[in-house]
Design brief:
This protein has 389 residues and is an alpha+beta fold. It has 4 domains: 5-42 and 315-388, no CATH class; 46-116, no CATH class; 123-203 and 300-307, Lambda Exonuclease, Chain A; 212-296, no CATH class. The protein is built from 12 helices and 15 strands. The protein has helices at 18-26, 28-36, 46-63, 70-80, 96-113, 181-190, 252-264, 270-283, 311-332, 353-356, 360-366, 376-385, and strands at 5-6, 12-13, 15-16, 39-41, 123-131, 142-152, 158-166, 194-201, 212-215, 227-234, 246-250, 287-291, 295-296, 299-306, 367-369. Strands 3, 5, 6, 7, 8 and 14 form a 6-stranded mixed β-sheet that branches. A hairpin with a 5-residue loop joins strand 1 (5-6) and strand 2. The two termini are 36 Å apart. 30% of the residues are buried. Bound molecules: iron/sulfur cluster. Iron/sulfur cluster (SF4) binds next to helix 2 and helix 10.
Length: 389
């Protein structure tokens, strides 16, 4: 029987996913240490659990007939489980409480933006597996893709959507996402060429002049979803410690106009004159004071593209080429260290560096080895999700 490799728990593996192929492409030794030897991060990362909680809450919101607030409550319910469990947070994720706030903001943003998103009759978490060489002695080898959302466009065509929770927005140049290798591979596996990313873009808690924020609640005739520019952040405790944080904000064009007016004011009495100008903008509502909790710096980004038909055979050939390399590496037990320490920097950030540097202390510090097969499903899910960090 054809085999790609045998996993840490002795399972015979005959399929490869996008992330498995990416790992192999990045460094065959990394692939071996994680997928064959079964080493995984000792510490649980917030990014993985947080992304999963956001996706599960989105799915729950749809399953519950889009009942307002239900997605937010579901995220909070899931995230409460992690309150007492140590997770590794990035500087942007900060801590459990900030992740709790960001997750609630994401689900609120999703509620606000959904009517404008091409997400209709969604099906969640589908698995498309496609054999590479049907009818040959390699017929058992498959590429497997995990599709977060399958949706239907207005004209009836289907679209596959990958959900990302990440720190930076995607490139929004029209059509650029048609060059994304993951979406190309998924299009090849599913036969669906319409593809999109639904990105939940995290933000740090800081708030300062010039930041872009989105309204989470209506403020008079300013409706939830409106994007504003921060004029000033008013931290609680400055005048009254019982007060909540607030911001002063307005539409970017208005804020620019006001800034230009203020810049013109110079010389004696300028402080008072500037205060008068700002007060006038506030008085007629061109800029407004808003509770900090009613805005978010987090963003929901949608990018969509069509994979050209002529690119699909290339994607399939590329997948096949890599799978043969993995099979060959397994048969020859040849797993070279092809990381890098300059550009692209891989090894200094790689969790397997203790092995490659012959440093048992680092191995002990960074890694655990998966145990019985019962843990393997969860371990594989983590591996498949790593590219979403
Ligand atoms: S430390 Fe470098 S060589 Fe070793 S597995 Fe990681 S990327 Fe590869």
């Amino acid at each position: 029987m054809t085999l790609l490799y045998k996993s840490a728990s002795g399972k015979e593996v005959r399929h490869a996913s996008y992330s498995a192929i990416s790992d192999f492409d990045s460094c065959p030794r990394l692939f071996k240490l994680s997928r064959i030897d079964g080493y995984k991060d000792k510490d649980k990362k917030c990014s993985f659990e947080f992304g999963k909680a956001v996706e599960d809450a989105v799915q729950f919101y749809h399953a519950n007939n889009l009942k307002p607030g239900d997605g937010i409550d579901e995220f909070k319910r899931i995230w409460l489980k992690w309150k007492e469990i140590p997770l590794v947070y990035t500087s942007q994720e900060k801590d459990w409480a900030w992740a709790y706030r960001m997750g609630a903001d994401f689900l609120r943003l999703y509620e606000i933006c959904l009517p404008d998103l091409p997400i209709r009759n969604p099906k969640f978490q589908l698995n498309y597996a496609k054999p590479l060489w049907p009818g040959t002695d390699l017929a058992e080898l498959e590429f497997t893709s995990f599709i977060d959302i399958l949706s239907t466009l207005e004209d009836g065509r289907r679209i596959i959507v990958d959900v990302k929770t990440q720190k930076n927005p995607m490139d929004s140049t029209p059509g650029m996402m048609s060059l994304d290798p993951q979406l190309k591979d998924y299009a090849w596996a599913s036969g669906i060429r319409e593809v999109g990313f639904l990105c939940f873009v995290k933000s740090s808690p800081s708030m300062k002049k010039g930041d872009s924020v989105t309204l989470l609640e209506d403020q008079g005739d300013w409706k939830a979803g409106r994007v504003l520019e921060v004029v000033r952040f008013i931290e609680h405790g400055v005048s009254d410690p019982t007060e909540e944080d607030k911001i002063v904000a307005g539409d970017t064009a208005i804020v620019q106009l006001m800034d230009a007016e203020l810049a013109e004011i110079k010389g004696k009495g300028s402080t008072e004159k500037k205060a008068e100008v700002s007060a006038a903008y506030l008085a007629d509502g061109r800029i407004r004071v808003i509770l900090r909790q009613n805005v978010t710096k987090c963003r929901l980004q949608w990018v969509q593209a069509t994979i050209p038909e002529e690119d699909l055979p290339d994607a399939g050939n590329q997948i096949g080429h890599k799978m043969i390399q993995i099979k060959d590496a397994y048969e020859k037990n040849f797993w070279p260290k092809t990381g890098g320490v300059r550009w692209p920097v891989k090894c200094p950030n790689c969790r397997m560096r203790g092995h490659c540097l012959n440093r048992p202390d680092l191995v002990e510090q960074l890694l655990v080895k998966i145990g019985p097969a019962v843990q393997e499903d969860e371990w594989l899910k983590e591996l498949e999700s790593e590219e979403t960090e």
